[in-house]
Structure formats: C-alpha cells, structure tokens
C-alpha cells in the first residue's frame, strides 16, 4: 500500500500507520472521526453546557508544520529516520507521511541519505554511542521559512561545511540550521546547547496578522490554519475591552497575548521556558505592542504571588497536556477574574481542572472543540468559564 488521500471521504490511507501509531484514525472517514471527537468532548462537558460543533479542517492533510524524526539503524545497518513505534523504542522509517508538511518530509529523506553517505553514525540509545540523534524541522506557514535542528550527541560534526553545502544546494529553502547538543542519556529530544550553523537561529511566522519569532525550543502550534480559528474564538469568548487586565498563562512565545493585546488595557504573559519568554518579548516589540509584559516563571508560582495583591479581569490559560495545578487554580479563585478562557490539548485534565473552578464559583458558559490534529486521537478544546452572579 502507498500513502494516499481520498478526497471524497477525506480519508487518509497510510502504509506506516499500524506501526507508527501517530494516526489512530488513519483509514476512517474524516466526518466519522469528527463525530467521535465531538462525542468525547460531549461526554466530558455536556453536563455543564451545550457543546458547539467541532471545527474540523477542510483538507485535513499535511498540516503539521513541525516534524521530528529519530535517526537510527535498521537490522541491516541502513540509516533510518522516523517516529518511534508505539510504546517502544524501535524506529519506524516513515519515508512518507500524510500529516506532515511534505517539504519537511522530503528534507528528512535527503538528510537520511546524506547521513549514510557522510558515514555519520546514528546515536545508539542502548550503547550511548554515535553522533546523530534527531532531526527537527519547523516551517513558517506564512513566511515559508524553514528551520532545521540537527541534534547531535556531542559537539563534533566532521565535514560539517561540506554536509551543509550539499544539503542547502538541494534545499535552498532551509533558512536557518541549528546544531543542538544533547549529550545526556535521556528520551528528551533537545539538549541545552545550540550552535547556529546557518542563518538567524530562528524562524518567523505570521499568525492572526502578527509576526512571531520562534526559537528551537519554544512551543509553537503545529497546525497554522486551525490555530487561527482557535485563537479567534478564544479571544472572542474572552470579550476583552480597553480597561481590562488580561493574564495569558502558559503563553509560549506570546501569541495569544499579543493578538489579544490590541483589545486590552494590559496583558501579562507567563511562561516557564526562558527561550520562549525571550521570543515573546521580542515578538511584542516586532509588533510594536507596548501594553504586554512577559514573566519567566512557573505559572502556578506566579499566580500565587499575583493573587496576593493584584486583580485581573480575564485569564486565558493554555497549559500543556498534563493540565494546570492546584496552586494555579486556587490562586485563580482568589483573583476572581470575570472570565476564564481555558484552552486545552488534553480535555481529560481540563475536565479535572474545571471541576475546581466550578466548585469555586464559576459556571461553564461555552465549549468549542477544534480539530488541530486530524487523524490522531488528540482534540483541542476551548471552555469559557464565567463567574456566577
Ligand atoms: N499559549 C501558547 C503555548 C501553549 S503550550 C500557544 O498557543 O502557542 C503550553 C506552554 O506552557 C508551553 O509553552 C510550555 O513551555 C508552557 N509551560 C509548561 N509548564 C509550565 C508551567 N508550569 N508554567 C508556565 N508555563 C508552562
């Protein structure tokens, strides 16, 4: 079987899906998948509010603008690159993917060949030996800028200039290349040290009319078209006006806060990843936004302090899949914002967290799921909580 897309049924067929495990709904009609996701959100939140219809994609393929491949050897010692087989550390050599950006897939294929021809050793996790660990690509949907991050086990990169020359001749659209050094025996992809080998060391993209710098370790939503719809809805639900103080918690590179700042009195963004916070500060200045400040802290720690003597009218929160923390939620109940917009890529933990907020005096007044990750089991969900009168 080869990978293909059935236009009529919006169904993908993927030769790798069984092993790769990335696309749980490969082979299913897209409308059926959306129905499954809708039901899942209704089961979680239907008791509180009428769940709006999930917003799907018109053409749900090649939407991932961030692509990650693990590099290794197969049993015949050929270089392979792809994802880990589900629940294992065996690599599936995904030479074609229905959800990744095709240009990124092509670049990875060529890098794989170059690794073999330059005789670079893929890193062997068990032995803790070898050179190349991962390849990471990010593409700006609007700008078409591409960032390549090559994760190596050490600083050594023999014949580096030659390797880069051959690669960039083949793929002149790669605007920046970063070598990331991960010398630890860990399943974490990225290490702490970056060496810029080409270009600026970051890419930029335009989202909701604003320009954003994205550095290698910063979070950036992987589905551009759907993210624009998601942010628009979240900001609409937040119903921000010129006198409002807005907190953008778990703000990444400041995207939501910066887009929302045009309507707000002031916005405070809080984020744990220092590289993302640096990006966020630069992003405010690129967009000439003066009413936003960004704080590098654990969102819970920050809110505990903030709740002691400051107020906020609106809190937009977008935590990672594991959800928020009791410290954060309890502080939120002290701050008593009029509206809380809770964006989540993990609706189970979102459901757990909003129980705390409901108990503390809020009611769920809107629920809108978005399909940011077609063909996978993941669902993004936006909930509006308003303070009970
Ligand atoms: N709102 C952003 C980022 C959402 S992803 C966007 O839409 O792009 C979640 C973010 O939370 C990531 O940037 C991650 O680094 C950050 N994060 C994770 N744990 C955190 C914590 N304890 N405190 C603050 N930020 C955290």
TrEMBL record:
CDD domains: AdoMet_MTases
Binding site residues for S-adenosyl-L-methionine: 221, 250, 271, 318
Keyword Heme carried by entry: no
Gene Ontology biological process: rRNA base methylation
One Pfam family recorded for the sequence: tRNA_U5-meth_tr
Gene Ontology MF annotations: rRNA (uridine-C5-)-methyltransferase activity
InterPro entries reported in the protein's UniProt record: MeTrfase_TrmA_AS (IPR030390), MeTrfase_TrmA_CS (IPR030391), SAM-dependent_MTases_sf (IPR029063), U5_MeTrfase_fam (IPR010280)
Full protein name: 23S rRNA (Uracil(1939)-C(5))-methyltransferase RlmD
Alphabetized UniProt keyword annotations: Methyltransferase, S-adenosyl-L-methionine, Transferase
Recorded family membership: Belongs to the class I-like SAM-binding methyltransferase superfamily. RNA M5U methyltransferase family.
NCBIfam families referenced in this protein's UniProt entry, alphabetically: rumA
Active site (UniProt): 345 (nucleophile), 345
